[in-house]
Amino acid sequence: AASQMQAVVPTGGFIHEASGKYLTARGLSALHWKKEGGEIAVELTVPLGCTMTLSVPCQTLTDLDDGTTYTPANSQTVKTNSPLERLELSDKITVTLPSGTYRFKGE
User: Fold this and answer.
1) Residue 74 CB contacts under 8 Å (≥ 6 apart), including other chains
2) What is the pTM assigned to this prediction?
3) Kindly report the CA angle at 98 between 28 and 43, in degrees rounded to 5?
4) Which strand ranges, in their side-by-side order, compose the sheet holding 17-24?
5) How does DSSP assign 88-106, residue by residue?
6) How far is C-alpha 75 from the chain's CA centre?
7) Residue 82, helix vs strand vs coil
8) Which residues pair with 53 in a beta bridge?
9) Percent of the chain scored above 70 by pLDDT?
10) Listing from the earlier edge strand, what are the strands of the sheet with 93-97?
11) Rounded distance, CA 57 to CA 60, Å?
């Protein structure tokens, strides 16, 4: 069975950038995020055989590798070739990702 992890970029506050790495039994799990000028840059690595649920406080989330932008209008239409398994929107966007390395930009 796949191991499940969570990563949350906080809303507000005084922290504008954070990074973390953790060596799991299945490989390296890593997250780096930075808030700057109304944008949030997120890079993460999900180890083999794991899934990660990522929550980002934004209204649009763009996958910088394939160019897909997720917004409230297309939140229920996730491309079948996308690594995203689930997408929800409110004051944040939450995605569940399988193993791999990802880069996102939130606005």
Assistant:
1) none
2) 0.79
3) 55
4) 17-24, 27-36, 39-46, 100-106, 61-63, 69-70
5) EESSSEEEEE-SEEEEEEE
6) 14
7) coil
8) 6, 96
9) 79
10) 3-8, 50-56, 93-97, 86-89
11) 9
